[in-house]
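Lab notebook, bench 4. Still working through the backlog of constructs that have no structural model yet. Next entry is a single chain of 109 residues. Request: give me the structure tokens for it.
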Amino acid sequence: MQKIRKGDEVVVISGSDKGKRGTVLRRVSQEYVIVEGVGRAKRHTRPNPMKGVTGGLVDRDMPIHISNVALYNPQTQKADRVLLKPVGQGKDATLARHFKSNGERVDRT
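Model written out:
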């Protein structure tokens, strides 16, 4: 199970964007995620009238390694680690994400 998923609010804990907060837009691979507003880079783009793309400099969110982000805990208002705990009994037990500091469940569904 993935500890950080698409749509999670995360805090950058290391690197040039340390302390910034944003939501995970997508997972690029098993180890990289794209966070909204974090790791921006300027990209030179050629115009393409067939796709309706205008040329010039475009800001893009670049991938960031998953070890450099931590899930944001709204109760403590800090970055927090994630713990996977089984919920249920026997065969029906499923893993759920919990915050390590206070034990609150991340997924409220």
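Notes after review: The CA atoms of residues 25 and 108 lie 20 Å apart. The mean pLDDT is 91. Flag for follow-up if needed.
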